[in-house]
Amino acid sequence: MLGLALAVVRGWTRLYTWRLPAATREIRRAEIESDLWEFQQDSDGPRGLNPAVHTLIRLLLGIPDDLRWRTDHVSSRGKTLRIAAALVAAVLLLAALGILDLMRTRKLPLPPDDPRPDVSLTPVALQPSSKPNR
User: Fold this and answer.
1) Is 99 domain-assigned?
2) Between the CA atoms of 127, 131, 132 and 133, what dihedral angle is there, to the nearest 10 degrees?
3) In sequence order, what are the residues at sequence separation of 6 or more whose Cβ sits closer than 8 angstroms to the Cβ of residue 69?
4) Is residue 102, in this structure, part of any structural domain at all?
5) How many domains does the chain have?
6) pLDDT digit of tens for each residue in the chain (134 aa)?
7) Which residues contact 9 (CB under 8 A, 6 or more apart)?
8) Which residue range is the domain that position 43 belongs to?
């Protein structure tokens, strides 16, 4: 029965450390494995309570702490990722503003003084005739 309880604890540990960086994951799994070994070797353990039941109770009571540990390690990794993304976005924004500034015309041309239509471009049919109408 104790072997089954230990397997459940190890399975839970593998589940909540899944997809963490390898070093972090292995350190946490080693901590839990050490705790389980110490529990098995402890001759002064709790009297009157089956070791398997004790292990499962510790597992259930420890789940909130395990989840908190997991979120602490995910959020520190996520925070680094958010900082890196913000820095990349800032650099891209500054580069875009620099490119737009380079594309901007420095001195705009002045409009003509007296804009009049050019009569020479008017089609002949629309030009006033020199013959009087009869």
Assistant:
1) no
2) -70
3) 16, 28
4) no
5) 1
6) 889 889 999 999 999 898 888 999 999 999 999 999 999 888 666 667 788 888 989 988 888 889 888 888 876 656 776 777 777 778 888 888 887 787 777 777 777 777 666 656 656 566 566 565 55
7) 32, 36, 55, 59
8) 2-76
Instruction: Give a yes or no: residue 14 inside a domain.
Output: yes
Long-range contacts of 65-74 (CB under 8 A, 24+ apart): 66/12, 66/13, 66/16, 67/16, 69/16, 69/28, 70/16, 70/17, 70/20, 73/20, 73/24, 74/20
In a domain, 111, yes or no: no
Q: Which two tokens stand for residue 69?
A: 């540990």
List pLDDT tens digits, range 21-30.
899 999 999 9
Query: Which residues neighbour 29 within 8 Å (Cβ) at sequence distance 6 or greater?
Result: 13, 14, 17
pTM for this structure? 0.55
